[in-house]
Each structure stands twice: as C-alpha cells, then as structure tokens.
Amino acid sequence: APASEPVGPEVLNRESHRRMRLDEFSRTLRQARCGSVRRLRFPHRLVVMVLAVLALSLLGACALPGARSTTAHPLAARTPTAIPIAPTPTNVPAGWVVYVGPHFTVAYPKSWTYAFGVVPGNAFGVSIVLQNVSTGELITINETYGYSTAQLQALCAQGDTTAPLAGLAMRYTLDASGNRTWYFVTSHHYAYALIALDGGEPPAVVAGHDAILATFRPDDPLSDCTT
Q1: Which of 63, 86, 144, 215 is the residue whose CA sits 20 to 30 A from 101?
Q2: Range with the largest mean pLDDT of 17-21, 100-104, 137-141
Q3: ∠ CA 80-82-86, rounded to 5°
Q4: What residues contact residue 43 under an 8 Å CB cut-off, 6+ apart?
C-alpha cells in the first residue's frame, strides 16, 4: 500500500538538495564576477529582476571598503561554538514548502518555486530567488561569508534604520522605488540580505511577501552587530 502523505509542510532535504543542485550551483557561482553577469536560464522577467537585485546589493563584497580581491584578507575571529542546524519555522501555513538552505530555512507557498540567483559581487555564498510562477513576484535571499573584520563592520552599517524581521533585529532599507531590503550578520560571520522587489505592488502582495519573509530562520540567530 502506498505510504500516507506526510503531515505538515513539505521540507526540501538539505543533503539531497545539495547533491541534486551541485553542478547547477557551481555553474552559477562561476557566473558571479564584479561588473560582469551572464544571462541565466530563468524566465525573462526573473532575469530582469535578478539584475535589479544586483543593483540593490551594491554593498556586497564588491562595494565594501577593502573588498576582497585575489589577495587574502585576515578574517575576523570566529566564536568557538558550533553552528547549529537552522530550525524548521513553526509559523508555516498548511501546504507551504520549507526550503532548507546552506545555513538558513525559509517557507513559501506551493504556487511559488525557487532558483539559484547570482551571488552579489565577488562574494562566496549562495543566492536563492523565490518566484511566484503565476505573477512573477520575486524575493531574493543572499547568504555570503568569508569577510574580513573591516568588511563585517561595513556590513553591519548597511541600511538606513533598524527594523525587526522574523523575530530578528535587522538593518533595513526602503529604496526610491519602494523595494525593501533587510540585512543581518550572524555571530558566525554569515551575512544575509533579504530583498523584496515589491515597490508599487498592492498591499495584499506586500503582505504575502511579509508572510514568506517572516518564516526566515538562520542557523545562528545571534547578531554580530552591536545595533
């Protein structure tokens, strides 16, 4: 007899996902270069919006003071504690999918899908683009790492104000077009940018994006920033 359907949100397994996407992820990372972004095999609107995300991410590694070059920079001292596994969000509506990233989890409706984007600048990490397949709405989550102490300090200074998201105190920017970006740096020196390109969208669309972003859970919820 066939197995019964699992109860609760569908969870994309971390290890099997990595194995399935390893080649695609490697190709994507090779496409990330300062000032040079190759076209990815995404739908037309997704390509355009990912390029817009890169413009919003100018404070990534390429734009930071003392940005990483081919010469190694000393890294900030890491805390001795191990990085825990990101918890599965508890505020996931029925029928949503839980995506398990390298060091974070996030949930989204089944009417959405995900693809690998382009990591900003010359940073190490992963860029996940969530897309509503019907409307083309986009949310991007960038996870980057390998920064020097000076770069981490600059990352902590991103944004215009401090605003809570998913129970975390994050830095926040609202650009001239109404697009929203939150920044968070963990105590293990992983930097996140959560970008909602929803400037000018109806309140119901923005509220839907807020519901997705509210499920974001990093492995390490402790901030490396003082404010």
Answers
A1: 63
A2: 137-141
A3: 145
A4: 131, 136
